[in-house]
Specification:
alpha+beta; two-stranded antiparallel ribbon; 123 residues; binds zinc ion
Length: 123
Amino acid sequence: MSPLRLKGRFANAKQINRKKNQLASIARRNLSKEDEAVSSEPCIDGRRIVEPAVLAEQMWCNACQLPLSFRTAEKEIRHGLSSTFKVRCHKCTLLYSVKTSKEHTNPNTFNPVQDVNCKAAVG
Ligand SMILES: [Zn+2]
């Protein structure tokens, strides 16, 4: 019997089974997020914490040199207290990602982190 491997390293069956369960869980979670985004029509209901300067800078179509409108927002992706809206330009139909908060990179994981979430947690 050949030894089992996980990402090029030797692994036992328990470790491989745990990794399969993690991947299945992530796939299920991603599917449920997509369902929520599609079912939450219209996506701009409710209240948000926004950084007006960040929002104002991004609500602009660079191709048309025209402002974007939340009336043409198609989807919202929530990241804790901040959001990313997918807003389509009404003239050229380009799709823009509009973030409600600045973000920085976590030095340990290199993942993007929204400033508003850090400030809410730290105070
Ligand atoms: Zn445009």
